[in-house]
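Q: Can someone sanity-check these two? First one:
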Amino acid sequence: MSAATATLITCHANADFDAFAAMLAARHLYAPCVLLFPGSQERGLQKVYAGLDRAAYGFAEVADLHWEDFGRLVLVDTRQRSRVGHVVPLLERSGVRIEVWDHHPDSPDDMAADAVQLAQVGAVTSLLVQALRVRNTRLKPAEATLLGLGIYGDTGSFTYSSTTPEDFQAAAWLLSQGMDVNQINEMAAHELTSLHIQALNSLLESAHTYTINNTQVVLAEASMEHYLGDFAYLAHRLMEMEKFSVLFAIGIMGDRIQVVARSRSDAVNVGDICAELGGGGHAYAASASIRSMTIHEVRETILRRLYDQANPDKTAREYMSSPAVGIESASSIREADELMLHFGLKAVPVFRPGTRACVGLLDAQTASRASAHGLGSSPVEDYMQRRVHVLPPDASLKDLTAIIVDARQRLVPIVDGEKVVGVVTRTDLINVFADEPGSLLDRKSQNSKERNIGKLIQDRLPAEIRDLLHLAGQLGRKLGLPVYAVGGFVRDLLLDRPNQDIDLVVEGNGIALAKALAEELRGRVREHQKFLTSVVIFHDAKGAESRIDVATARLEYYEYPAALPTVELSSIKMDLFRRDFTINALAVRLDSTPFGQLVDFFGGQRDVKERVIRVLHTLSFVEDPTRCLRAVRFEQRYKFRIGAGAEKLIKNALSLKLMDRLSGPRLFSEYQHICDEADPPACFFRLDELGILRAISPHLALTPNRRDLLCRLREMLTWYRLLYFDEPAQAWLLYFLGLNLNLNYAETSAHFHRLGLPEVKKTEILGQREQMRAVRGKLETWQRQDDVGRTKVSVLCDLLRSISLECLLYIMASTDNPGLQKNLSRYITQWRREKADICGADLRRLGLAPGPLYGRILKAALEAKLDGEAPNAQSQLRLARKMLEGVPESGGKSCDRPMRKQSMLAP
């Protein structure tokens, strides 16, 4: 074939039977040609392709192609550029003729083509078969069967609503060409493994129904550790079993999410929704493979697009607040602050003086801070946000969401010409998607299988905690306030792990509930108005002080990556959405009837069961990089695994160097929590594996020696804690010493600052470290002498007396000398606690006036006791008398001299 006539035929990535069959049909229309099969995730098609004589059909591999040989590209079953990435070299070359055969509706991603054959048929193969029939093409029975397989596959054996008369006519013609229907049935048959059955059960159990324009739409989810082939067939089976009108089957597979959508209703266009997810298809059958979104974001996107389809004519004009309250740019910050305070606004548009033209935005937090810093008289234009997205009144909900959610702009000015006629705020959007009665995002849809865990509360919690939860629920009903127990308490209840730290969230006035609770418990309330939280402090049945945190449902958002959160009023769903992981975004409603209704918007219950850590949205680690450390901590504590998607997002956050933006105190808080876990070394190993330690500081990367030392330190801490001494060992300090093994003073000092360790202790701790390093050689020397009986215990005690407990444990863990380790153990448990059996009173009875000699004698007595030379009080008194021999008896007031009553020297 010459370059001028060579033709390449291909279809979309992740081919289905219809796309594959269309390629086979097209080769008769464009012979001579080369076929490029881009691969498939359907096992049945993989099996068919593997059994073909590929050379006879003209298939080639990408590696064998010479792109410059082709002057024409034929695409079947697609015209979306994003779905044909395997032929980018041809798409980027000028002069290549592109011809398309498709049956999908138009999309923004469609390429310009030189010729387009487009028809609304159930299978694109039917369109090509029609062309073959017009040309009187003769097919072999085997090929007619393969083409028929494509038509049967994309029409659901002629049961889908998208099936047309043309599909029946094409199949009839193929039958006349020798198509074997029985063979099609065998080739299309799907073998269901135990994993498929398990996934199908998960889809059935998780199915939630939403009503769109009187059409029931079902969302069902299944989670697998790895990719599962034939997931589309599971969706087909589910549709047939349950007779759903519209189904979105969502498979969470490793680091990707697979969506298969089917519709038998004209009211729901699943192709349009899957296109929003980066996939494709037509109105009745579509799919998408997603790697850049969390399961929650996928679900919300589907529901948002369903909402758009249900309200196609609703525009920004209907969502906006009008007239818009704003401030002119020449006005003062103080005036803007007072305006927002008066109307209870979080932000306002800024107008050009004398007009309603928007020139910026000013948020309440900026105005408040500027006023606090004495800048109240400054003009608004000095501190306003200048780059502002605006929309016209006919903008769609999708347009609004793109600015408020994706671009993270607090409000959108709605402009007619240049004039601002209204604003749509973040709260308006929340009301649409969360608080609006009957909203699609309300999880309490019909046939929702919400779980009641009242029995778990009864069986797994102590009576005092149960009574507190019931009391909170009763007060909530009395005050008309929905009350929830949230977060880690619920997670650990499901895991049957002890956790009596109760956090309550109230939809409404949380402080009112806190006051009522405090009155019933005869306690008091400590309020934090800024963060809409309060603490109820009371005494439990044993008289010990106890606390319950009570918060008003709120949404935290972040002004910039790694910033501390800003708080605003919201619903329980939005309150849970701000949390770090799905397993922590669970709530139990306490005022419900029956008591103990589990609230799970984000699949947390499923993730607890599957023991996986997942985030709620893709910006989670960007907004708060400390969540990278927290993910590892929870993973190791519960022996879960960080989901593939979450792990990918962690690595993305590290590549953006977001750990550099974290303050020392925030790092120290997470570091200290890690050190207080049951197995800190496991956390450190995982942090090192993910590259988090290196992101904090390159010198913190774990060497084999450090890994070994960290494990020994864990053993030392466990050993010491089992002694039940009153003096606690600070785990964070011990592990800090281990993490800085073989680093110099400057590097260790830099880590002290980077990890936010207490600055007031820096000199003391680093001094201790240097002192410990200096004494190591002396300890080894002492041990060698002790091994041959040429030294004393008192010498060891003198070397160690000024060494802190943490450094002692560190030395004990880091030495390979069993003799020294044994002696250090005796020093920690016994020798460092020894005292002389005589005291100052005994020395006074010996006639010695108080003074420095007291200390020297008592020290000598203790050393003699440690060395076995004076093991009891009597022998130590003899030592004291001996030390007093030769001390002058002359008068005077020297406190080093004995008193005159020599009779006191009598034993």
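And here is the second, same format, sequence then tokens:
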Amino acid sequence: MNKFILKSIGLVGLASVVFSSCENSGNGGSETSEEAQGIMMVQTSVPDPNIQEDVLPYTIEFVEQEFSNKPALPGLQSFTSAVNQAGEILVVGGRRQGLHTFKAAPEKNFIPDSANNFLYVVNPETGDFWSFDVNGLKDELSAPLQSNNLQGFHDEETDEMYVIGGYGWKADGTDMKTFPSIIRFKVEAVSQAIKNGASTSEMEALMEYGEDDRFAVTGGDLIKLNGRFYLVFGQRFDGQYRAFGGTDFTQEYTEEVRIFTLKPGSLDILTYGTSTSPDPDQPFHRRDGNIIEDLDPSTGQERITALGGVFPPGIIGGYDYPIYINGPQNPVVKKDVHQKFSQYECPIISIYDDEAENKSIYRTMFGGIGLYYYSQDSIQKTIYDKATAQGRNDGMPFVADISTFIESADGTYSEYINSEPIKNNRLLGSSVTFIGNRNLESEGKATSNGILKLSGLSNGEKVLAGYILGGIEAAAPLPDRPNEGTWASNSIFAVYVTKTPSGAIPASFATKADPNTQ
């Protein structure tokens, strides 16, 4: 079934490979274990008989950037970001740790010194980066700016960045909480301040702070649609993270979309409402999924779409059906549609084919964690089978597959696996989002909410769609040993789209990760 034959070099006589969980050294670089660094994969192309020709109206490429004679970029995941006018990436929050561990009390599963205490500006073309340590800021700013899975939205019309909530360590280091905070600043001003070596007082003067318990959300997303903010799904988690019960935390999913506006010149809520679901299956009981700015292919109208997310009540698994939010009332829950790949947050490149008779939205997803997989190399397969045999398969492995989930104007859906996985079958993509090229909007090649549209491209034209920065990287789809084998990546991929049709593999050929999950 796999389309690649992968040969392992330098590993002789090993029945299995053990990878160590590694932390960032603190010098701006990302470290992996010696074993992980020592594995070199040689990719030998073998035609895959399952490929269907020209089912995608574009060709997409993911090109890892290499920067010589430059300091290593920081390895980060679960941050929020914005792009300034120069095309540089402003990074806020996140962690230098890989996947959090799952240890019982009194262990700390979110390592305190792995929180990202820097604001970064990254030039994705040159590899240059600048940083500002937020530890010097007053507590109400420094603690939430170091949280993970925080919600952020950059309003490009006003250049205002809004950062809400997030889960992190209190300023005094005594415990963890979901912050009830909202922070606003101008992206251009903060970017320049970081690059110019601003003082603590200068940076504080650029930031506004507000607080409201309704902002205490982590693992959701924040999007502005038709003049209103939508704080979509997520949870409030206070105390020490425990996977399977404990007494040192409280957890509550929001199970709603929180819709609000702000008072002019203030961070106080002016209008507020919620959208909930009466469905007994609790489709809004989800977090850490893909919540994206989107278009309805049947109307061309902007909307918000939720794809994937975890965990259905009482189930270690993910949601496989989408939810569409067109306004404050009555989100559309499509329970008759099933998405196989990428239930956890991952980079999604949205492309609108507005020239076809049956207009369609193509959402290409880069790796991550999902309910199905297609490509595993021999080492990954060995460890995956071992973990499964030991009963450690929760049905949500890391995947190397790049998949495309398609919705058409006539109401039909389809899903394909791209003809090639991430190079060398690297297990990348989880806990980061796609960072779009904002220049495409002014060039008429993307919609106002950043979706690439094929009508703006000439046949055969190749464009830079944007970048993928960081995320969790895993040594194996499931851990060889519990709580080991992941790290925060410092890779940057440039994503190119060419208006030339390409083949892909129907998702029906994918393998379900665990038949015991939903």
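A (reply): Looked at the second one. Helices lie at 34-38, 139-142, 187-195, 200-205, 378-389, 439-442. The mean pLDDT is 91.
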